Amino acid sequence: MIEPDTTYSIVVEMENAKSIDWDEIGVGLKALAREIAAVSANGLGWPTVVISHSGAMSDSNALRHEIAAEAPELGQVADLVFTAFPGGRYYDLKNNGMLATHGNVVIFTDSDVVAESGWLSGLLEPFADPEIICVNGYTYLSHDDFFSRTFALIWFFPMARGDKRFASKRAINANNVGFRREWIFDHPFPRHNGFKVSCTLLMHKLLREGHKIHNVNARVYHYSPRGWRFFYWRALVTGRDADRKFTELKSPSRTQRVVKSFSRWATMSWRTTRRIIGHAREAGMPLWQIPFSLIVGQAFYVLVFWGQFSLATGLVSDDIEVVPDYVGHS
After folding, report:
1. 239-251 in b/e burial notation, b at 16+ Cβ within 10 A?
2. What tens digit of pLDDT does each residue of 259-312 get?
3. DSSP letter at 246?
4. Is 253:322 a contact under the CB 8 Å cutoff?
5. Helix count (H) and strand count (E) of the chain?
6. Is 21 a residue whose pLDDT tops 90?
7. 221: which strand partners?
8. What's the sign of the alpha-carbon dihedral 124, 125, 127, 132?
9. How far apart are CA 9 and CA 273, in angstroms?
10. CA-CA distance, 57 to 26, in Å (whole number)?
């Protein structure tokens, strides 16, 4: 049960909105409004929803009109606040949006996820325990065709169903997580060149301080990646991020980093084979598609290996990762 004196704010980053359609964004915002209304009906106070974007502050009015057109319900259940961080990347928007929050709990979600019923109450209820600092939800990929099913099987999110072992090990989902405000204000997402490295660094900081990640079944689905351009770019950046994480958390030794790129390739190749064969049925994949899915999955992790190896050996420089214009749906 949610404590009646719990106050909360929700930060919605709009970086991912650049690569999905507004009707898809609208589905997520309507689901968010539904979840806020459900907890408000149980006596929780009116929250602030912070829409954090990377344009100029003058772009906020256009964004407000788009949201009012797609999800008018949201403005009826929460105070909408718009913050701008011109040119900001994913974690910049989360940190900047957090500065406009109120209340003792901050929930982070994204513009390209859709909450299931009970999501918000599932994230808020554990904060009745004053020892809990971080509550982590359950994010999975939606899928409706061959490629999206393959992505769902090989991705770092667990499957929607039948994936308890993998789900139990899930890391912080920056698109589906809540923190006590005083802790996250003192420990914002770290600045880093990587694409999706900061949440891993934040998680290790949390654990080093002796706090636990409280995993709950507060579920959202993430729109599936689509397109070969995304496939190619995301695989390479996943590899580069793997090298960055190893460097930060294990060793900056170039020799050890190169060795790690090979051992990780072997591990992920085996994991991909095991997951596709073991979970194809849960993904609704016909038997005849499994061999082709295995080929796609192995190709993805060959590219991941190359991204990790090339950064570890110095073949590419450690540049700031941004989503290229040629990448479509993320």
Report:
1. bbbbbbbbbbeee
2. 999 999 999 999 999 999 999 999 999 999 999 999 999 999 999 999 999 999
3. H
4. no
5. 12, 8
6. no
7. 114, 140
8. negative
9. 41
10. 21
Asked if 37 contacts 77 with a C-beta cutoff of 8 angstroms, the reply is yes
3-class state of residue 125 by DSSP: helix
Residue 152, both tokens: 């769902």
Given CA atoms 23, 35, 47, 191 in this order, what sign does their dihedral have? negative
Condensed to tens digits (0 to 9), the pLDDT of residues 53-73 reads 999 999 999 999 999 999 999
Q: What share of the chain is helix, strand, coil (3-state, %, to 5)?
A: 50, 15, 35
> Using an 8 Å Cβ cutoff, are 158 and 143 in contact?
no
| Distances, alpha carbon 274 to alpha carbons 128, 153, 297, in Å | 39, 10, 11
Q: What single-letter amino acid sits at 312?
A: A
Measured CA to CA, the distance from residue 290 to residue 59 in angstroms comes to 46
Least confident piece of the model among 79-83, 136-140, 169-173, 202-206? 169-173
Nearest to 29 by CA among 105, 89, 140, 112: 112
Cα four-point dihedral sign 133, 25, 2, 168: negative
- Domain boundary assignment for the chain: 8-222, 229-312
- Helix/strand/coil for 217: strand
pTM value? 0.94
Sequential DSSP letters for 144-198: -SHHHHHHHHHSSSPPSSS-HHHHTT----TTEEEEEHHHHHHSPPPP-SSSS-H
Nearest-angstrom CA–CA distance, 61 and 51: 11
Q: Which CATH code of 3.40.50.2000, 3.90.550.10, 3.90.420.10, 3.40.50.720 fits the domain covering 8-222? A: 3.90.550.10
